């Protein structure tokens, strides 16, 4: 689990990533590495919430409610996926200067 990822962390898609949704899944293409990544229905939902500026805590709460999952399990899944997205360069930690909503 990435210690830098907290409930208040907001992410944004990296500039060199192209996203395509297909029904209940999505494909991400990293233009820099030319690698494709698949997201299942839950991953797609997380990606959609990242795109509207939701923080990780809000994403976990939404998933817990929408999928009737224990809040701790939802948070663990969100942090795990977001950590992978960060490691692969598909997302960046958002700051007010690069697209995060101001607090």
Average pLDDT, all residues: 90
CATH-level-2 architecture: Orthogonal Bundle
Shape: globular
**Residue share in helix:** 25-40%
Portion of residues in beta strands equals 15-25%
Low-confidence sequence ranges: none
Alpha-beta content class: alpha+beta
**What is the straight-line distance between the termini?**
25 Å
Report on the structure:
- The protein has about 100 residues and is of the alpha+beta class.
- It has one domain (about 10-95): Coenzyme PQQ synthesis protein D (PqqD) (Arc Repressor Mutant, subunit A, Orthogonal Bundle).
- About 40% of the residues lie in helices and about 20% in strands.
- A three-stranded antiparallel beta sheet has the order 2-3-4. A two-stranded antiparallel sheet has the order 1-5.
- Strand 3 and strand 4 form a beta hairpin.
- Helix 2 (about 55-65) packs across helix 3.
- The model has no long low-confidence stretch (mean pLDDT about 90).
Briefly, what is this?
This protein is 39% helix and 22% strand. It is an alpha+beta fold and 103 residues long. It has a single domain (11-93), classed as Arc Repressor Mutant, subunit A.
């Amino acid at each position: 689990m990435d210690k830098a990822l907290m409930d208040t962390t907001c992410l944004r898609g990296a500039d060199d990533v192209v996203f395509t949704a297909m029904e209940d899944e999505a494909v991400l293409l990293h233009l820099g590495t030319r690698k494709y990544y698949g997201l299942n229905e839950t991953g797609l939902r997380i990606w959609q919430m990242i795109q509207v500026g939701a923080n990780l805590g809000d994403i976990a709460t939404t998933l817990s409610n929408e999928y009737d999952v224990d809040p701790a399990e939802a948070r663990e899944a969100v942090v795990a996926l977001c950590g992978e997205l960060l490691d692969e360069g598909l997302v960046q930690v958002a700051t007010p200067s690069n697209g995060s909503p101001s607090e």
